[in-house]
């Protein structure tokens, strides 16, 4: 889930990234109770028929399901906040509260959307500045990550200021004034 906020009094912009959650914690508990009830009822019927060894395995299955639901529910609270002001890009990551913090100069920051080498792998979104890189939106879908990259590029701008990308000139004895190299025949 991607949410944006604009603060008019200081002209800053904020992007909030959260994972898409299918079940609330209440719904997950109800699912767990229903599944445990069905599993233990079935195992109880088999135990009454003399197959008592099914009961410990039913308990292991419900324990594994409980652990998986707890881990999934905790990851649902992962939050990444990107705050872009006139001069700074601040990134906070954490669960329920900021746990890690980065601060970059806006003019020296660039947004990178890396395309994977294989179509099965997801794209990777990062903000990089002066050798330090922070990955964003690992929990987002590729389309959402591309949308976030476009929004961040509009807000942060290209590296080294709003004047556009820096053109690279070839330096050397065969360089022309327009920046292209002169080839000798």
Report the span from N to C terminus: 58 Å
Strand content: 25-35%
Helix proportion range: 25-40%
Overall 3D shape = elongated
Class from helix and strand fractions: alpha+beta
Q: How many β strands by DSSP?
A: 8
- Main β-sheet, in a few words? 5 strands, antiparallel
CATH class designation of the largest domain: Mainly Beta
Please count the helical segments: 3
CATH topology of the largest domain: PH-domain like
Strand order of the largest sheet: 1-2-3-4-5
Number of domains: 2
Evaluate the radius of gyration: 26 Å
CATH architectural group of the largest domain: Roll
Poorly predicted spans:
160-185
Mean pLDDT: 83
Spell the H/E element sequence. EEHHEEEEEEH
Task: Describe what this molecule looks like in 3D.
- The protein has 185 residues and is an alpha+beta fold.
- Helices cover 33% and strands 27% of the residues.
- The protein contains 3 helices and 8 strands; from the N terminus they run ββααββββββα.
- It has helices at residues 25-48, 54-75, 142-156, and strands spanning 2-7, 12-17, 78-84, 88-95, 100-105, 109-114, 124-129, 132-136.
- Strand 7 (124-129) and strand 8 form a beta hairpin.
- Helix 1 (25-48) runs antiparallel to helix 2 (54-75).
- The longest helix has 24 residues, at 25-48.
């Amino acid at each position: 889930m991607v949410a944006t906020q604009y603060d008019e009094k200081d002209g800053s912009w904020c992007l909030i990234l959260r994972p898409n959650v299918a079940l609330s914690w209440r719904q997950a508990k109800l699912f767990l109770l229903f599944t445990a009830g069905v599993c233990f009822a079935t195992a109880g019927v088999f135990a009454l028929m003399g197959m008592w060894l099914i009961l410990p395995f039913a308990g292991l299955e419900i324990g594994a399901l409980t652990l998986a639901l707890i881990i999934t529910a905790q990851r649902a609270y992962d939050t990444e906040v990107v705050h872009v002001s006139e001069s700074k890009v601040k990134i906070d990551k954490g669960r329920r509260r900021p746990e890690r913090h980065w601060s970059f100069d806006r003019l020296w920051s660039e947004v990178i959307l890396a395309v994977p080498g294989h179509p099965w792998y997801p794209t990777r979104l990062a903000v990089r500045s002066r050798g330090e890189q922070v990955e964003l939106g690992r929990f987002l879908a590729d389309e959402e990550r591309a949308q976030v990259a476009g929004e961040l590029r509009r807000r942060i701008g290209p590296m080294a200021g709003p004047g556009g990308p820096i053109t690279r000139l070839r330096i050397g004895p065969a360089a022309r004034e327009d920046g292209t190299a002169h080839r000798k025949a």
